Amino acid sequence: MDFTDKTKINFRTNSIIGLVLFVVTFVIYFITKPASLSFWDCGEYITCSSILGVPHPPGNPFYIMLGKLFTIIPFGLSDAQAVSLLSIVFSAFTVLFSYLSIVKLVKIWKTEPYLVYITGIIGALFVAFSKEFWVNAIEAEVYGGLSFFLSLIIWLTLVWAEKSRNMENQNLLLLIIFTFFLGFGVHQTTLQIAPAILLIIVLPLIKFNKKFITKAIVLLALSLILYYVFYAIGSGSGRGSWGKYVFAIFTISLLIYYLKDYVELKVWLFALFLIILGLSTHFILPIRASAHPFINEGDPSNWQRFGDYVFRKQYGPTSFFERRAPIMVQLNKHFLRYFSWQFFDADVIGKFIHLPRHFVNLIGQLIVALLGFTGIYYQYKKSKRSFIYLASLFLMGSIAMILVMNLQTAEVRDRPYFFITAYMLWAFWMGIGSIAVIQFFRKKAKILGAIALVIMLMLPLANMASHFHKNDRSQELLALEYGTNFLNGLDKNAIIFTNGDNDTFPLWFSQAVADPNAKEYYLEKDTLIFKEITGKSISKEEKKLSRKTNLLLKQAYDSKKNLEGIRKDVSIANLSLLNTPWYIKQLKKQEGIEINLSDKKIDELRPMKLPQDVVFPVGDIKIKFKEGKILYIKDLMVLQIIKDNYGKRPIYFAVTVADRVGFDKYLQMEGMAERLVETKGKYQIDPIRLNHNINNVFDFNSVYNDKLYKDENMKRLMNNYGANFMSMANVLHEKGEDEDALKYYKKALDFVKAKDKFLPGLSKLYYATKKYDTAFETIAPLLKKNPNDAQINYLATDYLVKADKIDSALTMLDSFIINNPDENYFIQYYFDLCKKDKKYNRGIELMNKLLEVDSKNRLANSYKSQLENLQKD
Q1: What does each C-alpha distance from 853 to 405, 813, 817, 822, 840 come to in angstroms?
Q2: Over the stretch 401-458, which tens digit does the pLDDT of each residue have?
Q3: Contacts of 349 (CB under 8 A, 6+ apart)
Q4: Within its chain, how far is the Cα of 818 from the centroid?
Q5: DSSP letters along 405-469, please?
Q6: CB of 42 within 8 A of CB of 501?
Q7: DSSP string, 730-776
Q8: HSE of 668, CA atoms in CB hemisphere, 13 A
Q9: d(Cα 793, Cα 573) in Å, to the nearest integer?
Q10: How far apart are CA 821 and CA 252, in angstroms?
Q11: Ramachandran region, residue 535 (left: φ > 0; alpha: ψ -120 to 50; beta: rest)
């Protein structure tokens, strides 16, 4: 195999192009960055960066340290935007190193220098503005950092491969090793490409003969056996990750043995030192955990918890061999489905050029596939060495990642970010495929080559334009408003049970981080409103809390005194985390939540199966649990917290919580949360408090910002606002105040995603306010979509009849009855209308049509006879 490069490029020209790509992508990322936090993990990462907290395992400590640094540097940005800037810097550098790497891969074979630059430009632009890469480039997430370290490692490896044949330049190899393990502190999947990097490094030493292939197969089989055996042994004690580490140790041992003639012992020892140095960022985790920060997930303050934390014990062991979903599901539903989103947004392009989405999507996918596979074929034909480099990297970023991540059939969210490396490397091939196309047409005619060149350069720009609107988060305040609305709708000193990331992280962020867009509201600030809602003045409402409760609240205030956010009086209890002893202790010691269990008792908590029927009483609340019911630790803690705090602090469940541990009928809606009350009933509502919250407290600016693209997750969460307005409309309707109910119902539709589902309800309110024509117009689109829906036809007919449009009503019923001859109610309705309006001939015509289909139709025969008699009279 030839290891010499065939094309020389100009260092200065190459550097300038790379710098321009860096600046251009940096500017575009910067102007599209979020105005504040985004949903999912962003709120947690920003908060932990701001306060040097400890996020969910494995902690991403180097990312948090860099995030903290960016919040300190006086950029003139909020902490949220400063941490987003970290992702922007990471990602712009990734684009730069992607360009440089593509250039190194292409200059291996003989070609014209300008085509090498063009390949790098096209490939790098496809990387920069692919959907998921762009999203992670501007959000306060770790995947921009992951891409940076991977692209840097790839480039360094190609630099080494360019200069070395017999393991020379080992200082550069040591730098690559250090970069791997420094990047491990940003995201552990930095190591995903390590086998490919190793192959590139040892490739000059390999002789691909029968002996080598046999030995490689045997050693691979042995390593997999060791992995499986130690995975099985470790799983019994919750240490399934042992398999991975034994596999790694075995691989390193093989390297030391087979490279003994090339690498001295002192180099191996120095490499070990650099690995430890790279991993040393993890030591900030126990240091910060010991300081009890506001966010301290896993509390890795001792060696056991630190080990469990870094090795992700709480997520349970995963294995290559025990698939959580069929491989084809993991390939198709996850990897390939996410792949189809990355280039050329069909919705945007279809609307712009006025073509059907599915057609545009097909063309876009064909372009992506053809460019990529052309690049694969062209690279393989031009240089086997270059092909092995890129193919091995892609294999580790795609198939290997599918095996390692082992996603379930139904995940709680789409996870395209796990495969961002594969999509990035495919863009390399798309760049290479572009010059293959240019070369092909240039051989036909120079003008054709020039046209192909223009088209190939336009494609990544078209891709960027198609993604710009959806990835422009410069006005995104929806997640911030979501968090502040939750908090501001609660009474002072409230405890709120939350469930997932999106009803917890925005609340944590709002409490901990100063944000210029965050507004704070206390009901008690407005004396008149407080009196209207409670029926008492503030002075009368204030209770003399017990000494213990006051001490606990003071403890909570003291633990949050350095936080710079809003509503620090509220205690957030996340139900998912309530399954862990460390979190329960944090609530007890830092949040002022009274939990009358010793630390020892908390450590001993286990799920329990009830041996008999049990009644849980607190105040006038009585919850019955059936024999055999399994109460998990979180359920036991909800009961304990309510038992110890009810009547002392307001207790709420977020509306997003599905499992209320049996308290559903003792909850009263007040907005984004439902308060625990002693009255029992179904769908209880505090109308005065709900009305005040949705009209005076909650912020909906981002919801009504049409320039802000709302993704599916945002639309789903906005439904909760719609439910608030819908509930208020129902209250007013029950009171007979239909005009006001109509206003709230119409407002609710601004927030709900599936509007069609609620149009019948809206039409009924128009009906109640005697707006019969509007009622029909509201439901008409549903009638067009579902012409055989009985309920919709009934409502539409009723509205037309009330509007005194009998002919229209009969015409509509004609069609429905002919298509649904078994719907006897509608036949009777038709008969009554004809009888009342003396349209006997019309009624007889319909009955004859029914009898043509079924001559024994007794109902049609009877009505026909009656109509004929009436006609005679």
Answers
A1: 60, 17, 12, 11, 21
A2: 999 898 989 888 899 999 999 999 999 999 999 999 999 999 999 999 999 999 999 9
A3: 355, 360, 364, 462, 466
A4: 48
A5: H---SS-SS--GGGGHHHHHHHHHHHHHHHHHHHHHHHHH-HHHHHHHHHHHHHHHHHHHHHHHH
A6: no
A7: HHHHHTT-HHHHHHHHHHHTTT-S-GGGGHHHHHHHHHHTT-HHHHH
A8: 15
A9: 47
A10: 77
A11: left
How far is the CA of 246 from the CAs of 225, 228, 467, in angstroms? 10, 10, 44
Q: Are residues 346 and 357 in contact, defined by beta-carbon separation less than 8 angstroms?
A: yes
Longest dimension (CA), the chain: 116
One-letter amino acid for residue 265 of the chain? L
Helix (H) or strand (E) holding 548: helix 547-559
The torsion angles phi and psi of 301, rounded to 5 degrees, stand at -90, -5
Closest CA to 500 of 409, 578, 433, 565: 578
Whether omega before 293 lies within 30 degrees of 0, making that bond cis, reads: no
Per-residue b or e along 377-407, where b marks 16 or more CB atoms closer than 10 Å to that residue's CB: ebbeebbebbbbbbbbbbbbbbebbbeebbb
β-pair type (651-654, 673-676): antiparallel
What is the DSSP annotation of 244-288? HHHHHHHHHHHHHHHTTTTS-HHHHHHHHHHHHHHHGGGGHHHHH
**Separation CA 306–CA 313 (nearest Å):** 10
Alpha carbons 62 and 284: distance in angstroms, whole number: 9
Per-residue pLDDT of 582-607, as tens digits, reads 999 999 999 999 999 999 999 999 99
Query: DSSP secondary structure string, 560-604?
Result: TTT--SS-TT-EEEETTGGGSHHHHHHHHHHS-------HHHHHT
The token duo for 241 is 């990750």
Closest CA to 241 of 309, 143, 185, 179: 309
Residue with tokens 């029914």: 850
Contacts of 157 (CB under 8 A, 6+ apart): 176, 197, 200, 201
Q: Return d(Cα 371, Cα 352) in angstroms, integer.
A: 23
Amino acid symbol at 602: I
- The model's pLDDT over 556-579, given as tens digits with 9 standing for 90+, comes to 999 999 999 999 999 999 999 999
- 523 CA to centre of own chain: 33
Positive or negative: CA dihedral 557, 562, 566, 570: negative
Phi, psi of 753 (to 5 degrees): -80, -55
Q: How far apart are CA 426 and CA 136, in angstroms?
A: 17
Contact 812, 796 (CB under 8 A): yes
Q: How far apart are CA 456 and CA 432, in angstroms?
A: 11
Spans of the chain below 70 pLDDT: 236-240, 316-318, 537-544, 873
What pLDDT was estimated at residue 541? 43
Residues in the chain: 873
| pTM of the shown model | 0.92
Cα 169 to chain centroid, rounded: 43
What is the C-alpha to C-alpha distance for residues 344 and 350, in angstroms, rounded to an integer? 10
Inter-residue contact 767 to 802 (CB < 8 Å): yes
Specify the pairing of strand 608-609 against strand 630-631: antiparallel
Pairing of strands 684-685, 673-676: unpaired
Q: Answer for the pair 480, 36: CB distance below 8 angstroms, yes or no.
A: yes
Q: What are phi and psi of 686, to 5 degrees?
A: -100, 95
∠ CA(689), CA(691), CA(697), 5° rounding? Answer: 80
Determine what percent of the chain is predicted with pLDDT higher than 70. Answer: 98
Residue 500 Rama label (left phi>0; alpha psi -120 to 50; beta): beta
For residue 639, the surrounding DSSP H or E stretch is helix 633-645
